[in-house]
Every structure is written in C-alpha cells, then in structure tokens.
Design a protein that fits this description.
This protein has 452 residues and is of the alpha+beta class. The chain has helices spanning 7-21, 26-30, 41-44, 48-51, 86-93, 96-101, 112-121, 140-143, 145-155, 208-222, 251-259, 270-275, 316-336, 378-384, 416-438, 442-450, and strands spanning 3-4, 104-105, 186-195, 231-235, 286-290, 295-299, 305-312, 343-344, 348-349, 362-368, 387-391, 403-408. β6 and β7 form a beta hairpin.
Length: 452
C-alpha cells in the first residue's frame, strides 16, 4: 500500500534511513561550503543554472524553465500539449492517472511529482523521445504502475504487463563466433550495465547520509574483488565522503579518466538536474577501476552502480566474463551486509530510468567500417538485426572516419546472453560486408541485405 502525505511519509522515511545517518563524516557535513548545507568548491565554479541542482534542494531554475515542484504534485495537471516524451503521451491519453496519483507516495516518501518533474521541465525534441519519467525508489514502479507500465511498453517495443524477463549470465552460453578474424575492423569491445541496491532510494530521491551508505557498502564490495578485477576506488575530486581519500582524486587524474571516456562528470543537462541527479555533488561519488584499466565501476551517478568491462579488439567473451564475475562478487558482499540488487521477475534489474530496465545491458563494439556505413539505410539495417548504431561520441553524434559504436538495441525481454549474441552475430555480419565491399563485391552485400 502506498503511504499518503503527512506524518506517515516522514515517519517511514526516518525509519527506513535512520541507520544510514549514523555513518557520515561530521566535519564535512558541518561546513557551509559543502553539501548538504552549501555547495562544494568545484560546483561554485560552474554556471548558476547547474549550481541550482547540485546542493540539497530540488532543481528550480526559471532560466531553464525548470519550475515544476518535486515534492508535491499541484492539483491541476501541467500543460503537456507540446511535450515529446513517453510520460507526456500517456498522461495526455489518460489524464485521470494524474488525479489518481497526485497525492500518492511510496513508503519511502517518493511522490508522482518527483517521478515526472524531469519530463515536465523538459518538453524535449520531436525527433528525440525520452521516457520523461524516473523512479525515485524501487517501489515507484509498482505504486505508480498504471503510469509506468504503458511507458515501459512503449519504450520496449510492446512489453506486456504480465511478461516475465529472463536473466542469463552464463559465460558458456555466449557464442564463440570470431567477429573480426583480421583484427582490422573492431577497435574496442565493451559491456556495461547498471545495478541498484535494494533498501536505498534511487539517485533522484536519495538522501545525503543515505548516499554515503551506498558508497560505503558498494566500495566494500568492489575492494573485495580479486585477480584481474583487483583495483582501487577513487572518489570524485572534492568529495569528502570516503575517509581513506578525503578530497578525492586530483583534477589531473579526473581529466585523464574522462578523456578516455571512462569517467562521468557533473550533470550538465536540465534532464539530469531536474531528475535530481546532481544533488550533493560531488559527495559519495567516484570510480573503481582495476590495475589494467579495462574494468570500471561508477558509483553514485545516474544509477547506484554503472559497471563497465572493456578492452581493445573483438574478444567480447573475455569482456563479458569480467563483467559477469564482478556482478556476482559485488552481490555477494552486498548480501553479507544485508543488501542485494533490486530485481523482480517482470522488470528484471530495477534502474532509475525505464529505458534501462531488464538487463540494463549494452554490449557494443567500436567498428571502423567506412564503406558499409556510408549507405543511407545503414542505421535501419542495424535496427533490423536488433542493433543500434551510434557515432563515436555517443547517441545522436555523427560518425567520424567511418567509426561507429554498434550495440544491442534491446534491454528488456531478452537475457544478457541473448543480447550479447545478437551483437556478436550482427557485428560479424557487418564486418564481413565491409570486407566484401573492399573486394568490389558490393552486389553480394546488396543481395544479402535485400533478403533480410
């Protein structure tokens, strides 16, 4: 049952997270120049519209049109007539859902306003449709199910409300297909996913002390990793939450990791700020990486954990192996601490954005394929194979020199192994087509594509 407004919500929040409040660095918490009472030094150097979302308060910024309250839903539904996101579409079609949920809260105090604020504050672009909604805790997906389920279905190709999501992390089930025997076309391989820790609110709603508890328990699990996964944890520059490294890593260390695409930065979009992702920045956030720097875990970004395994070349099976072992080992430590990953049979692994539900997995490779990718229908060809083609700089970026990041398109309804195998089969075919075109055999490629 969902709790209603008032003392019941406050009592629930206090009971749930009181234990986390016992663990904190009192010195940093007491200063007015650091969250939760103030802004960190690094944040104070950022534009005012970013600063507005990096303290303790919810994001409110007239300059960016971010005016919708996060803590309560007004009696009247906001005007969503010009919005382009899945949340707005559902509420336009079923406005009664707003009235149904506007005074409803989860047991952890997460309300409708918190979930939809980012979609209300950001009308979006007609050609780039976001979900327009985030979950503030695990229960959000069930308490507000009549709103979330149509969004999940629209985002994940008609995923049914009674569907069961499969999970399979068994390495022996991954194909042995050699994607690029020549070693010429596949530059790098990567597998990444997110994980959320049950019992702790998700980043849009997480509290200051609660966030520190998340860092504590996750870092404990990561430092337990052995062998090729053994490494260390590095808090973001300026973070005062991790006692062994107060102040975090240096600017130089941050920029080195960032320049290689291995580290996140402060939220610099109103989508993230309105979602609440920037609050208390940079406290209790950081990165773990192994000695070889081919395994990374982001702590405290858009999801509790973002796990990335990568390396040069086409050996996706080796990449997946590190990924699967790490997920398993971190989970063992979490359970020993009384926690676990958020997961259920319908939605799979629970993450902040509905777009990442299920596996949350993206298995991809950076390919150098200037000939086949020059086709105007290249992205559609990839789509037919269950793949998504992105420019080297990410979603909606342009390709430079024929470099494309090609990964599985689905997240929900198929297992981890299924998605990796879809990527393997598809990329192996793309590499073979590129080779044929180099040999002047474009007619054969055309025939195969026409038969798809």
């Amino acid at each position: 049952m969902a709790a209603k407004t008032g003392a019941r919500v406050l009592a629930a929040c206090g009971a749930t997270f009181g234990a986390a409040a016992a663990w904190k660095n009192e010195a940093s918490a007491a200063t007015v120049d650091y969250p939760p009472k103030g802004l960190s030094k690094g944040v104070r150097e950022l534009p005012k519209w970013i600063q507005a979302g990096c303290g303790d308060k919810e994001y409110f910024c007239p300059e960016k049109g971010a005016l919708f309250p996060a803590n309560f839903a007004p009696d009247e539904m906001p005007d969503l007539s010009k919005h382009s996101n899945f949340m707005a579409e559902v509420l336009r079609e079923q406005p009664e859902l707003y009235a149904k949920y506007k005074d409803t809260y989860t047991k952890n105090g997460v309300g409708l306003a918190k979930c939809i604020k980012t979609g209300v504050d950001n009308p979006g672009h007609p050609m780039i449709k976001t979900c327009g909604i985030v979950a503030g805790d695990e229960e959000s997906y069930t308490v507000f199910a009549d709103l979330f389920e149509p969004i999940v279905s629209a985002r994940h190709g008609g995923y049914a409300r009674d569907a069961v999501h499969p999970t399979d992390m068994e390495l022996s089930h991954v194909l042995d297909t050699k994607i690029d025997p020549s070693g010429k076309y596949v530059l790098t391989s990567r597998v990444r996913t997110g994980r959320s820790v049950r019992g702790i609110r998700l980043p849009p709603s997480i509290g200051f002390d609660e966030r520190r508890e998340l860092e504590r328990v996750c870092v404990k699990g990561l430092l337990n990793l052995k062998g090729v996964l053994k490494g260390d944890y590095y808090p973001l520059n300026g973070s005062m939450s991790y006692r062994p490294k107060l102040g975090g890593m240096s600017h130089k260390e941050e920029e080195f990791l960032r320049s290689a695409g291995n580290l996140f930065q402060e939220p610099d979009s109103t989508l993230l700020l309105a979602s609440g992702m920037g609050r208390h920045w940079p406290d209790a956030r950081g990165i773990y990486h192994n000695t070889a720097k081919n395994f990374f875990v982001w702590v405290g970004e858009e999801d509790h954990l973002r796990i990335v395994s990568m390396q040069k070349g086409d050996d996706i099976k080796d990449v997946f192996s590190r990924f699967a072992i790490a997920c398993n080992e971190v989970q063992k430590v979490l359970t020993s601490e009384g926690y676990d990953f958020m997961h259920n049979g319908h939605l799979g692994f629970i993450l902040t954005c509905p777009s990442n539900l299920g596996t949350g997995l993206r298995a991809g490779q950076m390919l150098q394929i200037p000939l086949i990718s020059a086709r105007k229908d290249f992205k559609n060809i990839c789509k037919k194979m269950g793949l998504q083609a992105r420019g080297a700089a990410g979603v909606d970026s342009a390709s430079v020199g024929g470099k494309w990041d090609i990964s599985n398109a689905d997240r929900l309804g198929k297992s981890e192994v299924e998605l990796v195998n879809i990527m393997i089969n598809g990329n192996a075919k793309i590499v073979r087509w590129e080779q044929l075109m180099e040999q002047g055999r474009s007619a054969e490629v055309e025939k195969e594509i026409a038969a798809m």
